């Protein structure tokens, strides 16, 4: 068992007992694995605009070796936004990018301490939680659709939205997202 | 209630943008709109529900409309899907 999983379990157990921050306990025998790891979760961000958020996520993707060019990745995000906003509901957004510069399927999560401006949403509620989907060009159609479907299904779950909004633990957030991406 | 089957032609399936377009178009009608896939039935006016269905290209779906303006709604839905939902 990895140390980060033990820490995540300990935090999640404590959070489970905290009525103000409900979080489902990580399974004792098998913590949820998936495309999201703790290092792919950014907390405490302060994004003034949508483009600030996308730029930070693009840089982080390159820092993690997920993509090779932050500008190309940013362009891919913006190209998608130009087709229609990825701002969803209840403070969530699901920006996504398909690009040859992306080396593997990845999901990055970022939480902003402030409302992210200039990001149109379906319900008018400002974005605070960003779940970015990154897909290589050669997997665009199938994996892209599957992950979007999984994220849409997750966002329809009020419990999921609440847990992500309330959690300040990267491992717990990663585990929660992975649970829905399986 | 009226219904018709139609095949999704979008190369990337019913992802976020076409799902949103379909839902917003159907939202203009008062009738209930249901999209029936081989796996499930989803609310045709909910972009999230349509996205969550993850309908791939080539899937034959049945669109059902039930209400006062069902005939107009169904015609619009079928035309929209056949035309590729703007893609």
Model regions low in confidence, pLDDT < 50 over at least 5 residues of chain B: none
Number of strands of chain B: 4
* SS elements, strand count of chain A: 5
Helix count of chain B? 3
Query: Could you say what the CATH architecture of chain B is?
Result: 2-Layer Sandwich
- Kindly report the oligomeric state of this protein: heterodimer
CATH level 3 topology of chain B = Histidine-containing Protein, Chain: A
Share of residues in strands of chain A = 15-25%
Brief digest:
Chain B: InterPro entries: HPr, HPr-like, HPr-like_sf. Chain B: This is HPr family phosphocarrier protein. The complex is a heterodimer of chains A (182) and B (87). Chain A is of the alpha/beta class.
Write the topology of this structure.
The complex is a heterodimer of chains A (182) and B (87).
Chain A: H1 3-17, E1 41-45, H2 50-63, H3 70-83, E2 92-93, E3 96-99, E4 106-116, E5 127-136, H4 140-155, H5 158-166, H6 170-181
Parallel strand pairs in A: 1-4, 2-5, 3-5
Antiparallel strand pairs in A: 4-5
Helix pairs in contact in A: 2-3
Chain B: E1 2-7, H1 16-26, E2 32-36, E3 41-43, H2 47-53, E4 60-66, H3 70-82
């Amino acid at each position: 068992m990895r140390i980060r999983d033990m820490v995540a379990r300990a935090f999640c157990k404590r959070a489970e007992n905290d009525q103000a921050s409900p979080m489902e306990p990580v399974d004792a025998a098998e913590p949820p694995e998936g495309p999201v790891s703790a290092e792919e979760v950014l907390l405490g961000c302060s994004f003034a605009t949508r483009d600030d958020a996308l730029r930070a996520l693009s840089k982080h993707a390159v820092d993690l070796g997920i993509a090779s060019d932050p500008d190309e990745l940013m362009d891919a995000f913006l190209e998608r936004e130009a087709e229609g906003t990825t701002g969803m509901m209840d403070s969530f957004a699901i920006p996504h990018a398909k690009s040859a510069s992306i080396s593997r399927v990845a999901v990055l999560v970022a939480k902003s301490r402030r409302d992210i401006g200039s990001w149109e949403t379906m319900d008018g509620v400002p974005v605070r939680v960003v779940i970015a989907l990154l897909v290589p060009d050669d997997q665009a159609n199938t994996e892209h659709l599957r992950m979007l479907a999984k994220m849409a299904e997750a966002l329809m779950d009020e419990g999921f939205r609440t847990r992500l909004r309330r959690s300040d633990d990267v491992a717990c957030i990663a585990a929660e997202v992975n649970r829905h991406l399986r | 209630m009226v219904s018709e089957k139609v095949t999704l032609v979008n190369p990337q399936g019913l992802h976020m943008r076409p799902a949103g377009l379909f839902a917003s178009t159907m939202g203009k009608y008062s009738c209930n709109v249901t999209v029936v896939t081989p796996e499930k039935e989803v609310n045709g006016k909910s972009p999230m529900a349509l996205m969550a269905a993850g309908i791939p290209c080539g899937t034959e779906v049945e669109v059902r409309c039930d209400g006062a303006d069902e005939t107009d709604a169904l015609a619009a839905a079928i035309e929209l899907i056949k035309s590729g939902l703007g893609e």
